[in-house]
Design brief:
Blueprint lengths: L1 H35 L11 H17 L4 H11 L2 H13 L2 H11 L9
Keywords: Signal
């Protein structure tokens, strides 16, 4: 009886974890959707609020990357977009100190493109 209850609990926790990952990945896609559809030519095209939101989201994702390959794939895909790279550059050059710190920390994370 105890073993089957333990197995059920484990299956439920795996299902709940998969649902949470699925929900969070949908939220992340919604955060980045406006940015990925923008044609950026410079820093003036991107409002500071969007830069901060994207940076906090990328920072959140970088913390999930070592724990789940789904996040690694999503994170790497986002970082390969020109618009996301522009946000990183804007954040590094015009953002407040805590945002610049986040950009520099992201460069050292697993999944950050080494050839860019």
């Amino acid at each position: 009886m105890y073993l089957s209850l333990l197995q059920v609990t484990h299956c439920v926790s795996i299902t709940v974890a998969a649902d949470v990952v699925s929900y969070l990945s949908q939220v992340v896609k919604k955060v980045f959707a406006p940015l990925l559809h923008m044609e950026m030519r410079g820093g003036a095209d991107c409002p500071p609020e969007l830069v901060a939101l994207c940076m906090h989201t990328l920072d959140f994702m970088s913390g999930l990357v070592p724990h789940d390959s789904t996040w690694l794939s999503c994170y790497s895909d986002l970082l390969n977009h020109h618009q996301v790279q522009m946000v990183l550059a804007i954040a590094l050059y015009t953002g407040p100190a805590h945002i610049r710190h986040k950009v520099l920390n992201l460069i050292a994370t697993l999944g950050f493109p080494a050839d860019r």
